[in-house]
Specification:
By secondary structure, the protein is α/β, with parallel strands linked by helices. The protein has a domain of 218 residues: TIM Barrel, CATH 3.20.20. It has 12 helices and 7 strands. The chain has a 7-stranded mixed β-sheet. Helix 1 runs parallel beside helix 2 and helix 10 packs parallel to helix 11. It is globular. Bound molecules: adenosine monophosphate, zinc ion and fe (iii) ion (2 copies).
Length: 319
């Protein structure tokens, strides 16, 4: 395929098992079409898609890496909320090569996170109803997602557009973003954190299991608005701190950033002696402007040697 070569991977994707619109079977087929050698499904708080995805990937000759994306709290880099209160920072963390045995401490962590998500979802329905989204019910959301504990904010956004266009307008890429800015995003009027669980607690739970952690979209988590100058000033301290707290990787090749910013993030990650991981954060129709493997701008290339490095790190961290 033009502009594409063997050895390209995507380590950040979502399926119908969380808030992606495509099934594992469709994702595996699309991965083959865009020429990916390996893929990780990183559904939020779950590895439930793994078995179905393994069958599909085997059929297409694509390597599958077990993965998940979880929301955790970082108390070392607090943030100020829209009311001026300072508190722990909500961040997204990618975990790879995690154990699939339900009895393992890592899977127990995921079960707890799914429970926290369920409670957040119920509280968020009530909050939105009180803010005028009266027709938005839990039953409507359950109709959009696979399970009650796989409902995410994109499902909320979808329900807000279909039930309350008089508040949020017709769905377009612009209004979709605005719903997150005004309502569902971390500075929005209807933001509720999902969990109190910290980075440190989850890294401890993974000890000896071969799980490797990479900080997802670090610029979104830690800087919000950014310039190259701000990245060079602030990110080295953050990256170093994550390394000290047991992280192996930083998602330096992120589909939502430009190539010069990716180059800078790869350099800072290497300077810290860490692995630059990468992915598109594909969600299908829930993020219409993101292409599998290629990201927002279509020029994302995640080289497969980072997967070899992750595998080595996993082997070193297994008992
Ligand atoms: P949740 O797991 O329910 O907290 O929802 C997180 C998901 O919401 C992310 O994975 C994205 O798919 C989506 N999301 C969060 N912030 C935004 C945003 N500003 N614009 C679009 N989608 C967003
Ligand atoms: Zn998502
Ligand atoms: Fe994320
Ligand atoms: Fe994601």
């Amino acid at each position: 395929m033009a502009g594409y070569h063997r050895g390209v991977i995507d380590l950040h994707t979502h399926s119908t098992f969380s808030d992606g619109s495509e099934t594992p079977a469709t994702l595996a087929r699309m991965a083959q079409e865009v020429g990916l050698r390996a893929i990780a499904l990183t559904d939020h708080d779950t590895t439930a898609s793994h078995d179905e995805m393994q069958v599909a990937c085997d059929a297409h000759g694509i390597e599958l890496i077990p993965g998940t994306e979880i929301s955790l709290i970082d108390h070392d880099f607090p943030r100020r909320d829209r009311d001026g209160q300072v508190g722990g920072r909500g961040v997204h963390v990618l975990a790879y090569f995690l154990p699939l045995d339900p009895a393992s401490p890592m899977q127990q962590v995921l079960a707890r996170l799914r429970q926290d998500r369920l409670q957040r979802n119920q509280a968020l329905v009530t909050m939105l109803q009180n803010l005028g989204f009266e027709r938005l019910t839990f039953a409507v959301l359950e109709g959009l997602a696979r399970n009650a504990d796989s409902i995410g904010r994109p499902h909320f956004a979808e329900a807000m557009f279909s039930l309350h266009p008089e508040i949020v307008g017709e769905r377009t890429p612009e209004t979709w973003s605005r719903v997150f800015v005004e309502w569902l995003g971390s500075d929005g009027r209807a933001y509720l954190p999902k969990t109190e669980l910290t980075l440190e607690e989850v890294v401890a739970a993974a000890a000896g299991s071969g799980t490797v952690f990479s900080m997802a979209h670090p610029l979104l988590n830690y800087l919000g608005d950014y310039t190259a100058d701000r990245i060079e000033r602030d990110m080295p301290t953050i990256i170093r701190s994550l390394k000290d707290r047991g992280f192996a990787g930083i998602e330096a090749y992120y589909g939502g950033t430009s190539q010069p910013i990716r180059d800078l993030m790869v350099k800072l990650t290497r300077d810290a002696g860490m692995i630059p991981t990468g992915g598109s954060d594909f969600h299908g129709t829930f993020k219409k402007d993101v292409a599998l493997g290629r990201g927002h701008s279509g020029d994302l290339v995640v080289p497969d040697h980072v997967l070899d490095e992750l595998r080595d790190a996993s082997a070193r961290s297994a008992d």
